[in-house]
Every structure is written in structure tokens, then in C-alpha cells.
Amino acid sequence: MELGSWEVLRCYHHFVVVDDVCSIDKKGKPLREDGAPAMICEYSNTPAGAVHSLFKRGLMETLRDVAAFHKLELHDYTTASMNGVFRVKKSLTNEDRDRIVADCQALTANYAPYDLLFTNCESAAFFLSRSGKASGRFVSPQIPWALWSILRVTFAAAGSLTLLYMPQRNDVLSRECASFWGQQDRIPMADANGEVPDDELYQLSALWLHVAYHVFCTVPVALQTEIHLVRAAVHLTEQRERLGHVAYYHLIAKEVSRAILVGGLATFLVAIMPQFVHDTGLVGNARAVAMLAYTVIGLIYAGLVQLFMRAMRLLGYGVPVPIFKRIKEPKAE
Fold this sequence. Notes:
The protein is built from 13 helices and 5 strands. By secondary structure, it is mainly α.
């Protein structure tokens, strides 16, 4: 929760609150109107519960149903986190709320086995929180994002292998590079002025190495930046009225800044790694940048933004928000 509040680890556990919280006792426990603990429904388990299930049902049965959909006290989360919980704002009628509670009760008695990709805590929350007569479905937006991030890093790891075979300036060659080109004395190296002798095989091979590197390393970073910005803009625009203009413009400005600073800088650093290897021969450093630049810069950006906002609130200035207004031109008479 602490890392999530700093946007460093943007993976969240989801649950549905099934009772109205009417009061909080001296121990900080959320209570219903009748004084009983407020309850939630979720997919979850504990290490002790997993061990108990392992001995009772065996390894395969436990793996097929590692977490049950059940009810437990909201207090379990308010005590485990110093920052409480994030509330997802939705416009729900009383009929929607009654239906959600009824569906939660039914799901506890007959739930699908937990599955990390398709039937997890987030997908259950999305299914239960549908409004109106919409047909609910199990969806988990965090999973595609996580899978794409893993795929991008895998592509980068594969693409960065081409850096091992790129000839380098001043006769600095890796073993893979020397093996790729054959005998070292036949490799066309740059002269003192940085000019490479005209060699058709060298030029053609170097071109394809560069193309393969950028296809597997640079292009995925640029695509992830663009896709994240478009999705964020679309989702925020859909929620504009609910968020309010100040929150909407703040979030839009933050995502545009993220795309420019994180995506732009990461794409630039990844793109220049072939030249960096050519000039320095530091292949290991270049491969690390190609695989981790986007993730590391994104974490630094998120941490700095949260630090800035918290410092501004602590100093009493508040968070500056750019407000954009459309100025209509006066109609011609």
C-alpha cells in the first residue's frame, strides 16, 4: 500500500465493501449501524491458510484453488496499512448496491477457482461492481499491462543481444563480435577520424543489426509510451464529470508529462545505445539500459511527482494545476 501510494508499485489488491461503515470504535475498527464489524468480500488467502489447505487437500488441489472468495472484516486492511485503502468512485443506485451485496453472498457460496490471469481479485471486483442492467464480466486491466511489460522486457533482452555483435571503435571488440566477423584483422575498423572503410559486407550486416535492435528495443518503448498516454487520456475523459475539472486537468497534465519525460527520455536513451557501444565498448551497460530504462525512469518520475505534491501540501501551497480554458472567438456581426 505504501509503495502504491507513491506510484512505485502500481499493482493493487481489490475487494468489495458489502456493509456501510457507520462508525469507528476506539481501536479503529470500522463498524456497521448495529455495531458489528463492517465486512468485505474478496479473493484472498494467508500463508497459514495455504499450508493448512496443502496438508488437507494436497498440492494439486491447493494450486487449482489457491484463494477462496470469502467475507472478512474491513478492519484487517485498515490495520495492515498506514494509509488506509483507495476507494474506487462509482455512481451506484440503491438497487445497484443491493444487487452487489446479493451477488457477493452468492459468489461466496459458488465461486470460480482463483486464477491469476482470468479469475482474480480485480476481475471479481469488476464483475460485481457493474451498474444498472449491464452484464458483468471478469476483466483484469492490470494483467494485460503486466504481460505487456514482461513481453517488452523480453523483446529488449533479445534485441540487446545484437549489441554484442556490433563492431566497436578503436579495435575494442567483444568475443562475440570478433567471432561474428571472423578473423579480427579482417574487420573494417574506424580510423583516427572515426571514418569506417567502405566494406559492403560490413555495411549490410551492421545495418541489419541496427534494424533488429531498434525493432526489438526502441520501438516497443515508444509504443508503450504512446499506448499508455492514449488509454489514460480516453479513460480520464470518460470520467471527467465525475472527477471534476481540477482533478481531470491535474491527471491529464501528469500523464502528458510522463509521456514526454519518461517515454521521451527512455526512447532516446535506448535508441542511442548502438552508438554508445560503438564508442565505448560497454556492452553490458548498454544492454541494461535497453532493458530497464523505461521502468527505472518511470519509477523515478512517479516518486519525484509524489514527493513534490506532498512537499507542496506540507508547506501549505497546495498542488499547482494547469487549467485550460477554451476561448471562443467573438462572432462577426
